[in-house]
Specification:
By secondary structure, this protein is an alpha+beta fold. The chain has a domain of about 110 residues: Jelly Rolls (Sandwich), CATH 2.60.120.10. About 50% of the residues lie in helices and about 20% in strands. A four-stranded antiparallel β-sheet has the order 1-8-3-6. A four-stranded antiparallel β-sheet has the order 2-7-4-5. Helix 4 packs across helix 5 and helix 8 packs across helix 9. The N and C termini lie far apart (about 40 Å). This is Crp/Fnr family transcriptional regulator.
Length: about 190
Amino acid sequence: MHPLRRHIEEIISLTDQEFEYILSHFKPLKRNKFQYIIQEGESVNKEFWVVKGCLKSCFFDQDGKEHILQFAMEDWWVTDYEAFTNRTKATISVDCIEDCELLYITYDDREKLSSEMHKMERFWSKKTKLSYIALQNRVLSQMKDTAKERCEKLQARYPQLFQRIPKKLIAAYLGVSRETLSRLYS
């Protein structure tokens, strides 16, 4: 079974014909480690689904400090959602931590599929809700949990991140220094 079909069918069921039509709206993209798929200031017209690899969405503050908003591994979606939805310039960058194989859909094709197939509208609605819940939990964790608790929760929920991602990036995601992460992680 195609991995995108498996992913979509976690939420909705599809016929072979429906899936082939959906897949016809996606295009493959390969990027190497350290390559960007979105850079701050660019127009954003694509949403990406990770087939293989790992990416990060981030921004740099005025002091040049990197802040990581999200990691995206296999079966995850990533883009600058504000820029994608509002058709504005990116305020974040998304780059590859590993060599990546992606599928992307344009804004217009996503809107077309949503209007033509109620199933896909339900799929994206559910994915959006799940993403919002994850973001809400992350914000609450940043507000109420200690650095140690945030580290433990991340490691419990996504242990593979600690095997695949440099510790300095995990530290930037958690909002701690690399040294602090080393003390928490050992």
